[in-house]
Design a protein that fits this description.
CATH class of one domain: Alpha Beta
Number of helices: 20
CATH superfamily of one domain: Divalent-metal-dependent TIM barrel enzymes
Helix content: 25-40%
Distance between the termini: 94 Å
Shape: globular
Strand order of the largest sheet: 5-4-3-10-9
Number of strands: 10
Radius of gyration: 42 Å
CATH topology of one domain: TIM Barrel
Length: 598
């Protein structure tokens, strides 16, 4: 019997080796040996009573020559020491693997609705702020506002080198955005203040020498293509603040923006726009501090600094006298003037404003935005719409107009199409949103609600701003929204639409630490019994705890305090009859089988 089994194993080994060699010439002998071992195990039935066959002494021997690729005429060895000659017809070349080919994505075809055709005499430039929506959605995305949180900088693998790398990439993408704008007839833009994140931070500020070449290249590109670039430092940049630390941060932030533009080689038309800031309880005193602190700025900053009227604290009536005194150009914002109007109409204000720009030899620039459809409250009116549908009626012909809208370059293209200002590329157009909501998603104020309306305190730097901010900004029945706007002036900060800063984070204020909740201290001594407690009996547990029993008793005592001894009120009017206490109904007895048969 053992001889029969051995013969069967030998025959199986030989046939398996030949099959393995024919299917895979490479490593033929090693594959045949492994197949033989597998066949040997499978040749025995699980229920067989035969003794196990002793393994061959060559079963576990690995032949290095078996690794050689098989070819016609080669000799391959098996696990039993046999040699099998590889024939020509037994060699098959391996089939090449098929490469996966992805189907090319079909280009997205957008349905661009027609626009109303209007005419204008405007011949200036239209621009947008910071972000290009088309380039931002590309892979990899192109944008120049990469930044991070202070917690990220504090990590061991990040730090200032991480910030520097973000700055380098932002500057490279800035050049790309400038070239894209010029190719699409947009020659006016605002660059983000986050190009060099935390470069003006008091603890993390770093030099920009390492990116001097990149900055120069971006600036040369803008000058060569005729693209005007401006900047808008954030709302923390306030040189009229009563706190010296805020003023110092503002100085440092303005110097940072001026250095960026100087390294880029930009001319005097590249201005830096800031708001007046908070009023800090006294608008006249704040404007006086502004005049004094402005004199401490460097000449380079003074050459570029301009002011803008806002919709909360300072309108053109407040800023024009200061600008005319200090020779500071004023950016007229049509949307802000609509919310917080001046005494004079735009037709009378704009000639005075243009003289300030002419005096310094800088081309004027204004801001245009529109509220969202159906905006009613003050907060809804402040939020910018996705696009502007009209140019303002009072608009100088030769000036630059910044379109502050959510759709960025698409908002510029929209006005191009309406007024036929420049040709547009149809493939770069995107349809507007089907439905534009009034909901805002900006930063909310964390200040607690005040007990009395207008009762602002010095803690948030808004003392006395209620009367100033609401003058000309809020309609009747909108007191709650107005109060929310007024108290959002944290430390005198001017909140921009939707609570966001002006595309920049110049100064990162320290976060307030949350107060830990402390459990109430247990009373060490129990409340002593009063002198009359002995006569009335022992105090009930509910009275000791001050629980519900005491409250119910005191409430009942208050209700009957105005009654005399007979239950009649003091003025002789009988009180209403007391309601009877409800008593639960008794359950009816269950009917038994005997009652049912009866």
């Amino acid at each position: 019997m053992q001889a029969i089994v051995a013969s069967t194993v030998k025959h199986t080994t030989t046939s398996t080796s030949i099959a393995a060699i024919s299917t895979r010439p490479a490593r033929a002998a090693a594959t045949a040996a492994r197949s033989a071992l597998t066949a040997k195990d499978r040749s025995r039935s699980p229920s067989s009573s035969l003794s196990p066959v002793p393994p061959s002494p060559q079963d576990n021997v690995y032949d290095l020559a078996a690794e050689a690729p098989g070819s016609p005429g080669d000799v391959a060895g098996t696990s039993k020491g046999e040699q099998v000659k590889v024939e020509d017809d037994e060699v098959e070349e391996p089939k090449p693997k098929k490469k996966r080919t992805r189907k090319p994505k079909e280009p997205v075809v957008y349905d661009i609705p027609p626009v109303e055709q209007l005419t204008t005499t405007f011949k200036g430039r239209l621009g947008y702020a910071c972000l290009n929506t088309i380039l931002r959605k590309q892979k990899p995305p192109v944008f120049c506002s990469r930044t991070c949180r202070l917690d990220t900088v504090a990590k061991e693998d990040k730090g200032v080198p991480y910030l520097k790398e973000l700055t380098r990439q932002n500057i490279k993408d800035l050049k790309t955005i400038i070239e894209w704008n010029a190719a699409h007839d947009i020659f006016f833009m605002r660059m983000s203040s986050d190009i060099a994140p935390f470069a003006s931070h008091p603890d993390l500020q770093y030099s920009l020498d390492y990116v001097s070449e990149e900055l120069k290249e971006a600036g040369d590109t803008a000058n060569r293509l005729g693209v005007r670039i401006t900047s808008h430092p954030g709302q923390y940049c306030q040189i009229a603040s009563p706190r010296q630390v805020v003023v110092e941060n503002a100085y440092r932030d303005l110097e940072y923006h001026n250095e960026l533009m100087d390294r880029m080689g930009l001319g005097k038309d590249s201005v830096m726009i800031i708001h007046g800031g908070g009023v800090f309880g006294d608008k006249e005193a704040t404007l006086k501090r502004f005049r004094e602190n402005y004199k401490e700025l460097s000449q380079g900053v003074k050459n570029r600094l301009v002011l803008e009227n806002d919709e909360i604290c300072y309108n053109c009536d407040d800023l024009l006298p200061v600008c005319e005194e200090l020779n500071i150009p004023l950016v007229f914002d049509y949307h802000h003037d609509w919310i917080y109007p001046s005494k004079q109409p735009p037709s009378e204000l704009i000639p005075r404003i243009l003289k300030l720009w002419e005096r310094k030899g800088i081309k004027p620039k204004f801001h245009l935005s529109e509220p969202r459809k159906g905006a009613e409250t003050i907060m809804e009116k402040r939020a910018h719409a996705d696009r502007c549908q009209r140019l303002p009626e009072v608009l100088p012909d030769d000036m630059d107009l910044m379109i502050e809208a959510k759709d960025k370059e698409q908002a510029v293209f929209h006005l191009y199409r309406i007024y036929n200002l420049h040709p547009v590329i149809h493939e770069d157009l995107r349809p507007p949103a089907l439905e534009e909501t009034k909901q805002t998603a900006g930063r909310k104020s964390h200040k607690p609600k005040k007990g009395k309306k207008g009762a602002a305190t010095d803690e948030d730097g808004t003392d006395g701003t209620a009367g100033t901010a609401t003058d000309g900004t809020a309609g009747e029945g909108d007191e709650e929204q107005t109060e929310q706007v007024v108290h959002a002036l944290v430390d005198g900060e001017m909140p921009l639409p939707e609570g966001k800063d002006a595309e920049g984070q110049a100064y990162d204020p320290p976060l307030k630490e949350k107060k830990k909740r402390t459990p109430r201290k247990k009373v060490a001594e129990q409340v002593k019994e009063e002198d009359g407690a002995a006569a009335d009996g022992a105090t009930s547990p509910a009275k000791k705890r001050g629980g519900a029993g005491t409250k119910r008793k005191s409430k009942a005592a208050e209700e009957t305090a105005h009654l005399d001894g007979e239950g009649v009120e003091a003025d002789g009017v009988e009180p209403p009859a007391a309601k009877k206490a409800r008593t639960p109904k008794k359950a009816s007895p269950k009917r038994t089988t005997e009652d049912a048969t009866a």
